[in-house]
Amino acid sequence: MEKKNIVIPAAGESVTEGEIVEWQKEDGDFVEMDDVLLEIETEKASMELTAEASGTLKISVEDGVVKVGDVIGHILVGASSAGTAKPDETDSSESKTVATESVVSDSKTTYASGTPSVAAGKLMREAGVSSVSGTGRDGRVTKDDVQQAIRSGVGSTNSEAKAVPSKVKESKTTPSAVKPLSGERTVERKRMSLIRRTIAKRLVEAQQSAALLTTFNEIDMKPVMDIRKQYKDKFKDTHGIGLGFMSFFTAAVVEALKAFPLVNSQIDGDSITSPSYCDIGIAVSTPKGLVVPVVRDAETKTFSQIETDIREYALRGRDGKLTMDDMEGGTFTITNGGVFGSMLSTPIVNRPQSGILGMHNIVQRAVVVNGEIVIRPMMYVALTYDHRIIDGSQAVGFLVKVKEMIEDPVRLVLHL
Predict the structure, then answer these.
(1) Angle at CA 218, nearest 5°, toward 214 and 222?
(2) Which residues form the catalytic set?
(3) Residue 191: pLDDT over 60
(4) Which of the two residues, 299 and 87, has the higher pLDDT score?
(5) Which of 130, 75, 89, 133 lies closest to 107, judged by CA?
(6) Going by C-beta distance under 8 Å and a sequence separation of 6 or more, which residues neighbour residue 361?
(7) Is the pTM higher than 0.70?
(8) Closest by alpha carbon to 359, among 374, 377, 339, 375?
(9) The predicted structure's pLDDT at residue 44
């Protein structure tokens, strides 16, 4: 019988290992070609491995860190496990009942009886469930078994089992979230994800390997807000995408980088490399951490193209679909902490880049315009830069250029 190995694929030039997040199928399941088998997390992104053939799944590595090229299981092509019928063989409810009874009967005498899968075991620990009857192959406890037990309150070690499912779901989609304080003196320990460990490592490296300095300015957002109010409906009807602030700031940054090219440069050994293009990284918050997909050749793109790229990256980031190619490179980064309510921050440069622009929330403030005190929607902006190659005057000039572009948006169209 033909055997198709499940091999950890290469996920980028610098990526040598990954971590198994969760198997979507159980050992012994019959899988169809292109079914999602498991999720792998590398230091930069998550990816799904799919079945390259139809047959019975045999898992040899259930969890942990694996190397590129490792064989973590195989598929017996065309084979179906005992008690597991192919989809076209389950034509009647009677056959389904017989198959289920066969599995339950066999499970009484096999090693897998009552043993949870990796996903099921994790869910049991999080939910405080001590024992669950298994309906999987050879009596193995599946994730569905645990979820059903939680809903019914069976096997729980505490009285809050019925309230756990929503908490478990929240924990899975937002790994950084912590449980609300309950008055109990307990400490929860969770292993950092590979992406989170990589983010932590690189942020520390950025602080230690560059002379970082931050300069600030404030921007009157009224002109841009007036344009959006006037043209947002027509813009969306014409281009099929909303008109947001990010396209204005991306275009403004491009003009500022043209005026101050060192901010778009990088240190490479004893040399400074200055690209002729502007690949702008847009920091995107995902359930697994902050990632920075890149809007390439931003200097050649229209507002609608920039908005489309950003929206696509945001959706793919939310669904865990961003690839290594999406995040490779980048000459400058923009991060918008304002969407979370941040008033002011000092963002950290995304190495090996030399600058990052931080946007913040928009607040109605009293300012002086033409000698009069007026109320205007104001935003603080911050530029963190590598002082080794960027002087203070250039950094301030860059930020002033961004301010001028946003406060007089016509200059973005005329490239002035």
Answers:
(1) 150
(2) 387, 391
(3) yes
(4) 299
(5) 133
(6) 337, 338, 339, 341, 342, 343, 379
(7) no
(8) 339
(9) 67
